[in-house]
Amino acid sequence: MNEVIKLALGIFVLILGIPIGNVLARNTPEELKDGRKWFYLIILVCFVGAIVSLIIRNDALLFTFLFIAIVTSRSIKKDKKEVKRRRKSKK
Prior knowledge:
- The chain is mostly helical.
- 92% of the residues lie in helices and 0% in strands.
- It is built from four helices and no strands.
- The chain has helices at residues 2-27, 29-34, 36-55, 59-90.
- The protein starts with a helix and ends with a helix.
């Protein structure tokens, strides 16, 4: 039962990463433009870290890496949508 609660709490925190990433993208657009390649590197490192933490069976590391990857990827995805919207409004 204890493991089920840990997993449920971890999944809940991962789901919270989606709106947090959206808020970060909305409030920091200039940082997202300048450091796009670094954000992709962060996402790659986090997914590799998540796979390694699955192998060594460390749930805390797994959820930490996945949370960072979700927040970062949502920030980049939200930024891309806003750039497309701005281009359409300029035309």
